[in-house]
Amino acid sequence: MEKMYKDEVIHIDTGARAYIGKLDISDHPMGADWIRIKDPAEAVMVKNQAGHLALQINPIDYPHKNYRKFVDMRIPADQQIEIRVLDKNGELYKVYNNAMNAQRATRIISPGTADIINIGKN
User: What pLDDT was estimated at residue 105?
Assistant: First the structure.
């Protein structure tokens, strides 16, 4: 299976999670039923401003290098998955590349309790 996806960007959907990325075709250290997706992005269906469903691509590459640039997945032989290969001339491929190359935030700011309490007082 893996050899046919060499150098391709794939969209893999297990039913529970969906990712877009590059399939690592080397043997996985955890065994034959494990795969590694390099340069992954979560693929999530969301409602856009017009109320239509749209595919949103969220790269798994956060500030401060919290995560490495891969996701490991265990796919048992009896689990049904769907793998789609992105067309390198297609719009989704362009969106994936733009998302992966976009400048990331350098800081994560979370409001404190005092900030939340004072929101309604102004």
Answer: 65
